[in-house]
Write a structure and sequence with these properties.
Blueprint (H helix, E strand, L loop, with lengths): L1 H6 L3 E5 L6 H14 L3 E6 L6 H5 L8 E5 L5 E6 L2 H19 L5 H11 L5 H20 L2 E5 L3 H37 L5 H28 L5 E8 L2 H16 L4 E9 L6 H21 L4 E5 L8 H8 L3
Parallel strand pairs: 1-5, 1-6, 2-4, 2-5, 6-7, 7-8
Antiparallel strand pairs: 3-4
Helix pairs in contact: 2-11, 4-5, 4-6, 6-7, 6-8, 7-8, 7-9, 9-10
The structure holds adenosine-5'-triphosphate and magnesium ion.
Amino acid sequence: MLLDLAARRRVVFLGGKGGVGKTSIASAVALAQARAGRRVLVVSTDPAHNLGHLWQRSVGDDVVRLATATGEGYLDGVEVDPERTTAAHLSAVRATLRRLMPEHLGGEVDRHLDLAREAPGMHEAAILERVADLVETGTADYDLVVLDTAPSGHTARLLSLPETMGAWTDGLLRRRDRSDRLGAAAQMLGGRGEATARRDAEIRAVLTRRRERFARLREVLTDHEACTFVVVLAAERLPVLETVELARRLEKLGVDVGGLVVNKRSPADAGELLAARRAAEAQHLLTLRDDLGHLPVDEVPLLAAEPVGEAALVSLAAHL
Ligand SMILES: Nc1ncnc2c1ncn2[C@@H]1O[C@H](COP(=O)(O)OP(=O)(O)OP(=O)(O)O)[C@@H](O)[C@H]1O
Ligand SMILES: [Mg+2]
């Protein structure tokens, strides 16, 4: 299912609980698509990275080539570093604010941003900006972008952030609009300097750019022809319940949920213990079918060895 689905999309998000196999499945599908001749970028936004481990090389915040296929296709990868992303985000905000605020408020700006670093949502906001950026540049430079996202609760929040942030910037812009009008009136009365007007226009431009970036991300996310979201899970009770909840939340946000990958299925023919586990898994999969019966499902067996390196990822992709 997943390979066919990815072949028909430009952006594929993979989400699910920690340790279920998101990074492995993301790399497997991305590699398969590169081998099919597409230019592919795999992005890991998960704070606990292992794209590097998987490819047995160091992968960081700058894009690196992971595999070259015969023909046109190749695979690049990048790991979004939340610390670095937050730091870069804050220093950009600091630079803008310092430029736009009166000089004597510089200390205030610094204090505010030092507090903001640890504020809830700051990492998410920074990562979201980076995701928006990577989706935008990625879809321009590649045929397919595969995003391996952080564990599920976090992911749905991340995906609803464009809405929240859009509303927030809209509010600020409306307030600016009002003060722009007041400002213009004041200026006619000779009460406002040209410098202030210029600064206001600049603040407006910054906010507008940001809002437009989030609006574009949301447009891609809710474009069912271009983008899809696939949930990876283990056939266990809690992961199944969380998957149902995540899929519903995403569908409510207007995101296409293209399918589910049930990873690490126990074998039926490798001893009593694993056979019993397999039977228990089958029960949990019935729940999954009851609630998300409309979604196609791939089942990937539990492999004897961790899928590490290109050859192992090619065999992993054979199950998708
Ligand atoms: N089908 C499989 N059989 C055996 N091991 C697997 C399978 N799929 C993944 N693994 C192993 O399970 C571990 C977790 O996989 P992976 O890192 O892809 O999960 P993840 O969802 O990205 O985890 P995290 O949330 O921590 O980023 C890894 O050691 C990986 O090699
Ligand atoms: Mg991972």
